[in-house]
Design goal:
Helix 3 links the parallel strand 3 and strand 4. The strands form two sheets. Strands 4-3-5-6-7 form a five-stranded parallel sheet, sandwiched between helices. It has a two-stranded antiparallel ribbon with strand order 1-2. It has 174 residues and is an alpha/beta fold. Helices cover 44% and strands 24% of the residues. It is globular and about 55 Å long.
């Protein structure tokens, strides 16, 4: 529920809950109308060409809902996505297929191996791999991102625009 709440808030939405004993619970999720659609309909300029995004990303997060949303965002943007449900699976997949991945998106708090441990192991295998480290609360991730080239930190919750901007910046600089 906390993940859903964070995602809804990150997109400017609200969750309304109405509950009564013996009557049940009603939950409504409301989002603001997309300003970009309104501007696009009213614009007489020709649309900008879509950014070409391609390649395979390794996405590691132990929360299904977070992986699901990020996979959809990346897939809709043109990437192929391989998922890992914990730190050990992430390292195993990367070890087997290191040359296939254009970047890695990794949560800092996962079972098996932490994001920091995953970062170190992946960089030992392939020092040039671009990485996005994500967390709801991790000063360690901020430190790594500030000290290492090709690493970006995103604080949860974040929106799809921030996620895609981060991957675009990483891939453009590599």
């Amino acid at each position: 529920l906390a993940v859903v709440y964070g995602l809804v808030r990150a997109h400017g939405g609200v969750i309304l809950i109405d509950s009564a004993i013996g009557e049940g619970t009603s939950i409504r999720v409301l989002f603001p109308r997309a300003a970009a659609e309104v501007e696009e309909k009213n614009s007489t300029e020709s649309p900008k060409p879509a950014r070409v995004r391609e390649g395979t990303l390794l996405l590691a997060d132990d929360t299904f809902e977070v992986r699901f949303v990020m996979r959809k965002i990346f897939a809709n943007a043109g990437f192929e996505v391989v998922e890992a449900t914990d730190g050990i699976a992430c390292v195993d997949l990367f070890t087997e297929r290191a040359d296939e991945f254009c970047a890695v998106v990794c949560d800092m708090a996962m079972p098996g191996k932490t994001g920091a441990q995953v970062f170190l192991e992946l960089r030992n295998i392939r020092p040039d791999i671009p990485m996005i480290l994500i967390s709801g609360n991790s000063s360690e991730a901020v430190h790594i991102a500030n000290m290492e080239q090709g690493v970006v930190f995103l604080q949860k919750p974040f929106g799809s625009a921030a996620l895609l901007a981060a991957i675009d910046d990483l891939l453009a600089s590599n």
